[in-house]
Design brief:
Layout lengths: L3 H7 L15 H9 L6 H5 L5 E4 L14 E16 L6 E8 L4 E7 L3 H6 L4 E11 L3 E11 L11 E4 L10 H15 L13 H4 L4 H9 L4 H29 L13 H9 L6 H15 L5 E6 L5 H14 L3 E5 L3 H14 L5 E4 L5 H11 L6 E4 L13 E6 L7 H8 L6 E6 L5 H7 L4 E5 L9 E6 L4 H13 L3 E5 L14 H12 L5 E4 L5 H12 L5 E4 L12 E7 L6 H8 L9 E6 L5 H12 L3 H12 L1 H4 L19 H16 L1
Parallel strand pairs: 4-6, 8-13, 8-14, 9-11, 9-12, 10-11, 12-13, 15-20, 16-18, 16-19, 17-18, 19-20
Antiparallel strand pairs: 1-7, 2-3, 2-5, 3-4, 5-6
């Protein structure tokens, strides 16, 4: 192994030093850290604790209560033994611990190495949860063990950091703390202060980066944690704001093409529509067409509630581009939605080639399609993530449309837009967010809102029932089917799991079709089915040959079957507000009265509050504000974002004042 000191001489920047050179890591453990996204020393130092434990105080054993709370205490080991646990499957270490006031039993699972450590006797520090065991009374379960040495002071007698270590068997909290302490000791001075040259009063009030790093990992007080977090939240928002500004500046180069709104494809598209545009759709078309026809590339975010007609508006813009001799790429998050848009495009653009590209397209057929995309022929290509593969070259690309953008990471959105340097870009979402937050988070995009539903959309009656009413639910479904209607039943899992006592789609499909509805055609669709099989089932449902469709959230977005009037969501507590609203949006699309029925026995207060909000709000914008408050934007915005816009510590909702301050400082810095 190389000498860390020699490595430091080669680089004076912590981001260039590999984490294996930190004392206590080495090549082997560095592979485990890489699974957490930690490759360099800077990655390690910016891997912040997700919570803290106050271990400044010690309890006497007689003061410990079996109330499932955590306690820290000093004790001597009276006896220790290893034995086979329940059904011979689990190695169990059991120790009797004592101080001058009382004794207590501690147990550990699959930690045989502790027998050797504890059998040496002596006094140790223990920290763990205490509960009541029927046989042994009070019992400490899997407590952390610390030898009374000065080098272990980082894990007791202070406020202690706790890190997220998913799937890590070799990396305990205690070991992570030692590694972090060693890294700070050796390398903290090599972390540059990115705010050092930013001249605004807000920055002068923040902790210097080196001090903030020590305090966020090994805080001296609660106030120190607050000050350190404020420093790094501000830094994160500042860098994000600068990224947005650079990105927007890069899109201000004039585009090398012109469009004509009055063309045969636009005329054909309008005449093929079976409906009239709403006033809100007309406003959106006018606003975005003006952008599209200008010399500068369009960068638009189109927000609209479920069923507001965003796709029809997007296709109007596509018609302008296609009729002007250029290509349009339309990216969606699921194969099911891609197939639906593909069908609509074939219907609405009969004179223009329309192609479907997904991961299921392989071999000769894929090569032939890629050849067509690389030609000069104007066409529309609709696809999933397959569109952003490096070998997909789209010659003459004029417009990129990204549907349900919250389901994609920032890198994915940028990867498609970068298929052409000056491409016009439209991203759409049915998960609207408050305008003030949207303007800050999507500062590189102009925002258009469709705030009106098309006439004829039925208001969906939303009901919440408990599982003991399921027999009445099945009778209601049978009545709806008898009237010629169709229904969805959505489950949170594809198949049964040992970890969760939940109904699952595959098992309930068998029960429903053979026992509950043997005389009704029941189908199933979920994410593990092949694309061909999913398409076959969905086609049968569209055609009315399947009356009840058992599904997972694979049908969450974009599915449009006007005859489907009932949406049943089993174990509704397992879904977020946005998912529930999207699922509800799959019905109420025809002329018949529609019903969304959520089934849940939850007694969790937060979950009941969330379901209550879902029952009370039908409007997506009001629902989204409630969703932000209840869950925070990390989950609300969908899949975790990637790249420079990833928020590691900041929360744009709860830290919005800091976000505005950082944005102001970025404005000043960018002008200088």
């Amino acid at each position: 192994m190389h000498n860390p000191g020699l490595r430091m001489k080669k680089s004076r920047f912590a981001g260039d030093i590999q984490v294996q050179f930190v004392k206590g890591v080495g090549p082997s453990l560095s592979k485990e850290l890489a699974k957490l996204g930690i490759v360099s020393v800077k990655d390690l130092l910016y891997y912040f604790p997700y919570r803290y434990e106050d271990r400044r105080f010690f309890s006497k054993i007689k003061e410990i209560k079996a109330d499932n709370s955590y306690y820290q205490f000093r004790a001597k080991v009276i006896s220790v033994r290893e034995k086979t646990g329940w059904q011979g499957r689990v190695g169990l270490v059991q120790a009797l611990l004592s101080d001058e006031t009382d004794s207590v039993v501690a147990v550990w699972f699959n930690q045989s190495y502790l027998v050797k450590l504890l059998s040496q006797g002596g006094e140790f520090i223990f920290y763990g949860k205490v509960h009541m065991d029927r046989r042994f009374g009070r019992q400490v379960v899997s407590p952390e063990v610390q030898v009374l040495k000065d080098e272990n002071l980082i894990s007791y007698g202070r406020i202690v950091p706790v890190y997220s270590l998913p799937g890590q068997k070799r990396l305990s909290q205690a070991r992570m703390r030692k590694i972090m302490h060693n890294a700070l000791d050796a390398y903290v001075d090599l972390v540059p202060d990115v705010l050092d040259r930013v001249k605004c009063k807000e920055v002068r009030q923040l902790l210097p980066v080196q001090e903030a790093l020590w305090e966020i990992h090994f805080p001296s007080s609660e106030d120190a944690i607050k000050a350190a977090r404020e420093r790094f939240i501000f830094e994160e928002f500042f860098l994000f704001s600068m990224f947005i500004k650079r990105k927007k500046r890069a899109s201000t180069r004039p585009k090398n093409r012109t469009y004509k709104e009055g063309n045969r494809v636009v005329d054909s598209y309008i005449s093929s529509l079976p409906f009239e545009f709403t006033e809100a759709q007309r406003r959106a078309i006018s606003e975005m067409s003006r952008d599209l026809l200008s010399r500068m590339p369009m960068r638009r975010l189109l927000q609209g509630d479920v069923g507001s007609g965003k796709t029809a508006v997007a296709f109007y813009l596509a018609a302008i581009v296609l009729g002007s001799g250029y290509k349009c790429a339309f990216m969606v998050p699921t194969e099911v939605l891609a197939n639906q848009h593909y069908k609509k495009a074939l219907e609405w653009f009969p004179s223009i080639p329309v192609y479907l590209l997904s991961s299921s397209l392989k071999g000769k057929r894929r090569r032939e399609l890629l050849k067509k995309l690389a030609s000069d022929e104007p066409c529309m290509v609709i696809g999933t993530h397959a569109l952003i593969q490096p070998d997909v070259l789209i010659n003459g690309l004029g417009l990129v449309i990204i549907d349900e953008q919250h389901r994609f990471g920032v890198k994915q959105r940028m990867a498609l837009a970068e298929k052409a340097p000056d491409v016009d870009t439209l991203v759409m979402t049915a998960t609207p967010i408050p305008r003030s937050l949207a303007l800050t988070l999507y500062g590189d995009l102009d925002i258009t809102v469709i705030d009106e539903l098309p006439p004829g959309r039925q208001e969906v009656e939303t009901l919440w029932i408990t599982s003991d009413k399921r027999h009445r639910l099945y009778k209601f479904l049978r009545d709806q089917i008898a009237q010629g209607r169709q229904a969805y039943i959505v489950y949170p899992l594809i198949s049964e799991s040992d970890e969760a006592n939940l109904l699952a789609a595959e098992q309930m499909y068998e029960v429903l079709r053979s026992e509950v509805f043997p005389d009704i055609e029941v189908g199933i669709v979920h994410g593990k089915m092949s694309d061909r099989e999913k398409k076959r089932v969905m086609d049968l449902f569209y055609e009315g040959k399947i009356q009840i469709l058992v599904a997972t959230v694979v049908i969450e977005v974009g599915i449009d079957v006007p005859n489907a009037t009932v949406m049943v969501i089993e174990h509704a507590e397992r879904f977020g507000l946005s998912q529930l609203h999207q699922l509800r949006g799959r019905i109420g699309r025809g002329s018949h009265r529609s019903y969304c029925i959520v089934v849940s026995d939850t007694d969790n207060e937060d979950t009941r509050r969330r379901l209550g909000v879902f029952m009370n709000y039908k409007d997506g914008f009001r629902l989204s504000e409630a969703d932000l408050v209840l869950r925070g934007p990390g989950q609300f915005l969908g899949e975790r974002q990637h790249g420079p816009t990833e928020f590691n510590i900041g929360n744009p909702l709860t830290d919005f004042p800091l976000l505005l301050k950082a944005k102001r400082c970025a404005d000043m810095a960018y002008r200088e």
